[in-house]
Each structure stands twice: as structure tokens, then as C-alpha cells.
Amino acid sequence: MTKKYLLDANIYGEMVIDKELRQIRDNFEALKKEILVYGINSVIRKELRNTPKKIRIEGKNLRNFLLILYDSFTKDHQLAITEDLNKIADAYYTKYRELGGSKSKSEMTNDFLIVACASKNGMNIIVSQDEKSMRMENAVKAYKIIDDINKFRTPEFIAYEDFKKILRSKPNKFIGSPDKVWVFLLFFNLLNCLIQVNLSFFPFHNSIAVSQIYKLFA
Hints:
Elements: E1 3-7, H1 9-16, H2 21-30, E2 35-38, H3 41-49, E3 56-57, E4 60-61, H4 62-74, H5 83-98, H6 105-120, E5 125-127, H7 137-149, E6 156-158, H8 160-169, H9 180-201, H10 206-216
Parallel strand pairs: 1-2, 1-5, 5-6
Antiparallel strand pairs: 3-4
Helix pairs in contact: 1-4, 5-6, 5-7
């Protein structure tokens, strides 16, 4: 079943310093039909664009690297911030303060807009490293209360390492396919034909050769 993911801006920052980035991208490419990654240009991409232009990492311009990475993961899957989402984000903040949250509205606005957008658009999972704002306990409680009022399903929150594990843990499609039985049957049928042809020329080794070959696959 296809699942919809939304990656917070900090996740792209984690990726650019990850030595396994090439493997992560390869795993994602292999799972595009099962994992869809969405973006929000007006919030997440904008945050990435605010990276100072002069910073470089391993000889690459960090800002450009982040934007290219973001675009490669999200491509045509973009969500828009609408007026009703601003109202939902405001409701999150009000409830968050009621539950003891202390951060200012300006500090939490982008996080709350991301969650509101994800909840309304049916995202299954939000990937974020932000445990001190977006993933704080009282913030998550606020999302669930407001989402329940609006009849939204609050996405699950996971960290970057959990996202990497999901990409690695998907079964090999060939090995997991029901067609594998027919492939192996075809292989054994071909093997048997080759054995019969060869042994017709070497009848002395017939019984020994057959037993030895089949032992290899027992």
C-alpha cells in the first residue's frame, strides 16, 4: 500500500551530511510506488532557500545542494498552504499554549502550518528531527485534539533514522514476488534437460551425477 510522507526541512539537512546518501536515494527510487514524498514550497522549500549562499560542504554550495535534494524527492508532489490551514495552525497554537507550551507563535508557525497541511491532505507520516517544537509532547497533543474536531487523521511522527530504516527494510520485490516459484521451476526444468542430454553421452556417471547435482539444491 502506498504511503504519503512529508519531510521537514531539517531532514534534508540530515541527508546532505549523511555518508549513506547515495544508498538512501537509490532505495527511495526503488520504492517510488510505495513511498510518496510530498513538499510544501511556500514553507519547506522557502526555509531551505534561506540557507546562506556562501556556505559550502564538501566543495558543494550547501543551499543549492539542499534545493536539488528537495526537488528530487518531492518532484510533482506539492501541497499548498490555504487560508483555512492558517486557521488550523492558529488553533494548534492556542491549544498548545493551553497545554503548557511556552514558545512564541512566530517560533511555531511554520511547524504548525506543516502539520496542518499534512493532516488535511492525508499524509501518513511526517519525518522530522525537531523534538523541541514540532514533535514536543504538548504540541502533538494539540494536533490530535484539533484534528479530531476537524475530522482529520494526525500523521505519525518519526525521526530521520526511522525513515532510513523504512527505506532499508522493504523486501526485495523479486524475492517477494509470487512469480519467483515459476522462475525456479523453469530453472530446474532446464537443469534437468541439460542433465539428461549430458548423461546420454556419459551413461556410466548417470546415478552419481544426478544425486550430486540435486544435493546442491536440497
